[in-house]
Predict the 3D structure of the following.
Amino acid sequence: MGCERSGYADEPAELARLAGYPYHAFAKAISLGDGEYGTALLSRYPIEQFDVIPLYTEIGEDRSVGHAVISVDGVKLHVLVTHLSNNGRSLVIDQMGAIAGMLDTFDNYALLGDLNSFHLEDITHLDAAYYVNRPGRSYTTFHRWNVAIDNIVVSEGFTELSSGVSETKCSDHNLLYADFQFSGVR
């Protein structure tokens, strides 16, 4: 956001505008030149609360989790966006452990992001969670190495209706998407 490489644009706001989503939030991980680097969340529904939670990073770039509380038709949904470290498997496992602790406190959640794990078993340990990218079915999201490192993880009560990837020239990642029906805790 606000970096030279993107023409100093407020990328989350511009992406939200282009996608037709009226709400957006940004979770800074690091300063980058004159701007910031992190993850963004776009939403059709009002973001009632947004917090940025730093993640332990023993080496390399700092990482964070953006945590939004969104009310969807009267249901409080916790949405977390992140980009985990790319500095080793043990660090990814530690960061997922911290996120698992956060998710344990929520009834309804969605975790979205680049989880940077080449080993799906390192990230598939959340109780009662459903993974779009999972052992037995994985969508290639990082095309440079033909791997599935991005994921969408939801709590119990969500039923996947469809999912897939869309290739893009705007990123070194393919877009992972999913459509869900919700019948969980209200």
Observations:
- DSSP finds two helices and ten strands in the chain.
- Strands lie at 23-32, 35-43, 47-55, 63-72, 75-83, 109-114, 130-131, 150-154, 158-166, 175-182.
- Residues 69 and 78 are 5 Å apart (CA to CA).
